[in-house]
């Protein structure tokens, strides 16, 4: 793959990763609930889910999923339902008082599971990769070049959200966030529920 083309790929993947959405809310929630380690685990596991969709795209399966309305609709409803469930959980946690809100503890295992499921349950990622990433794939492309596309998408997504988790878990930032955890939980819950409704209503760009 020419370097100039790879730079374009990097820019598109970065744009998708940095756009606000359920992925950011996920990393925020696990960093707030468990500190740096769960936040980083959520970021890395989310990147694995992104890598799976990137792999489908370079294999040509992503476009096939979009062309099969029942399958794509099933993924859409499942993803919206999961985002709504996470939103309700966050809202329920947000009802606690300021001192109790930080007790919404999370584990690295929970962070890993939810990181993958949020990525796989987000139909926007399928559309994002099919619409943009598939432009970099040609029939004569080598396996190595396809691997570069998949790894680039994974590394940029994971790297961005790891950076977010590390920044939020800074010794000066995390106590400030935890002191306002009940409000952050409520805001995150509303965001996730709104995103679930938007997923049902129609696709959006980004992740």
Automatic annotation (TrEMBL):
Main location: membrane
Residue ranges of the TM segments: 41-66, 116-137, 143-163, 183-201
Pfam families for this protein: LysE (PF01810)
Localization: Cell membrane
Membrane topology qualifier: Multi-pass membrane protein
Name under which the protein is recorded: LysE family translocator
Keyword Membrane carried by entry: yes
Keywords: Cell membrane, Membrane, Transmembrane, Transmembrane helix
Source organism: Halomonas flagellata
């Amino acid at each position: 793959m020419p370097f100039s083309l790879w730079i374009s790929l990097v820019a598109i993947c970065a744009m998708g990763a940095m756009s606000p959405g359920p992925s950011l809310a996920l990393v925020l929630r696990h960093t707030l609930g468990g500190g740096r380690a769960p936040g980083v685990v959520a970021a890395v596991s989310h990147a694995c889910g992104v890598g799976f969709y990137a792999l489908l795209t370079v294999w040509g399966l992503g476009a096939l999923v979009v062309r099969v309305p029942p399958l794509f609709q099933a993924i859409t409803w499942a993803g919206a339902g999961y985002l709504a469930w996470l939103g309700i959980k966050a809202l329920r946690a947000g009802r606690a008082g300021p001192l109790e809100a930080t007790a919404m503890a999370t584990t690295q295992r929970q962070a890993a599971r939810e990181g993958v499921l949020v990525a796989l349950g987000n139909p926007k990622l399928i559309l994002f990769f099919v619409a943009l990433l598939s432009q970099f794939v040609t029939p004569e492309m080598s396996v190595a070049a396809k691997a570069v596309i998949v790894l680039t998408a994974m590394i940029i997504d994971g790297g961005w959200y790891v950076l977010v988790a590390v920044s939020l878990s800074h010794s000066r930032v995390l106590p400030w966030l935890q002191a306002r955890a009940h409000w952050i939980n409520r805001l995150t819950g509303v965001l996730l529920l709104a995103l679930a409704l938007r997923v049902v209503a129609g696709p959006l760009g980004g992740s």
